[in-house]
Amino acid sequence: MLCILVGSLFNACTVDAAPNAPPEIPIDSQFKEFHELLGGRSTLGPGTFPKFEYNGLSCQYTTNALMCYDPLAADPSHRYKLYPLGLNPSLNLVDTPDAPNGAEGQVVVDGYILYSPFVPLYERLKGSEYAGRALTRARYNYLQRRIEQYFENVAFFQPLDDGGGQVCLLAYG
Fold first, then answer.
1. In 53, 63, 86, 97, which residue has its Cα 20 to 30 A from 32's Cα atom?
2. What gap in Å lies between CA 39 and CA 119, rounded to an integer?
3. Rounded CA separation 62/36 (Å)
4. Sequence-ordered list of residues with C-beta below 8 angstroms from that of 36, at least 6 positions apart, any chain
5. Which residues contact residue 79 at a Cβ distance below 8 angstroms, ignoring those fewer than 6 apart?
6. d(Cα 44, Cα 125) in Å, to the nearest integer?
7. Where is mean pLDDT largest: 5-9, 18-22, 121-125?
8. What is the pLDDT of residues 145-169, one digit of tens each?
9. pLDDT tens, 40-83?
10. Are 93 and 86 in contact (CB under 8 A)?
11. Contacts of residue 48, Cβ cutoff 8 Å, sequence gap at least 6
């Protein structure tokens, strides 16, 4: 996964095809506007599976998320969403929250202190609306050499070797 800086308002990442990566699938027309709203390929990644139906939802996987459309949502503004892949029990992602309030200047989400470099991308994803509820504290992943934090619908990471600049989404999709 190769991260690149795109724009001065936020950091985003793009995914270069790895040898084992699934072929890129075009984003279905039903999801194009939503995909772009959330940062497009540089944030959610390219499509990895064609649109499909699941439990009454139309869905499409990208590298970093599962986009879904619920035609029966009571509020039309909530018809498009990211599916909570992080809640899969086999992932075992839930930590005990670290602080109910946090210190001054810290952003606390569901009792978890949001790692400060993740805040701009979290806000760009409209907080819990698209990122989902927080599931973990920020974690050091020494094997991958990065800091990670998991949410219901997406997960953030920052490479340790990056000098503190890049913030990317982990491949949830």
1. 86
2. 15
3. 12
4. none
5. 69, 70, 71, 73
6. 10
7. 121-125
8. 999 999 999 999 999 886 667 899 9
9. 999 999 999 999 999 999 999 999 999 999 999 999 989 999 99
10. yes
11. 22, 24, 25, 61, 62, 63, 173
Amino acid 68 reads: C
Residue 69's DSSP bridge partners are 58, 80
Burial of residue 30 (number of CB atoms within 10 Å: 0-12, 13-18, 19+): middle
Distance CA 7, CA 9 (A): 6
Computed over its alpha carbons, how large is the radius of gyration of the chain?
16
Taking the whole predicted model, whether its pTM rises above 0.70 is answered as yes
Q: Which among 39, 27, 16, 52 is positioned nearest to 123, based on CA atoms?
A: 39
Enter the tokens of residue 87. 């809640």
CB 91 within 8 A of CB 159: no
- Residue 31 is predicted with a pLDDT of 98
Q: Which residue has the tokens 């509820």?
A: 133
- DSSP letter for 62, please: B
Q: Which token pair is 135?
A: 């599931």
Instruction: Kindly tell me the burial class for residue 12, based on how many C-beta atoms sit within 10 Å of its own C-beta (0-12, 13-18, 19 or more).
Output: buried
Query: What mean pLDDT value characterizes the chain?
Result: 86
Quote the pLDDT of residue 99: 72
State the Cα–Cα distance between residues 126 and 103, nearest whole angstrom: 22
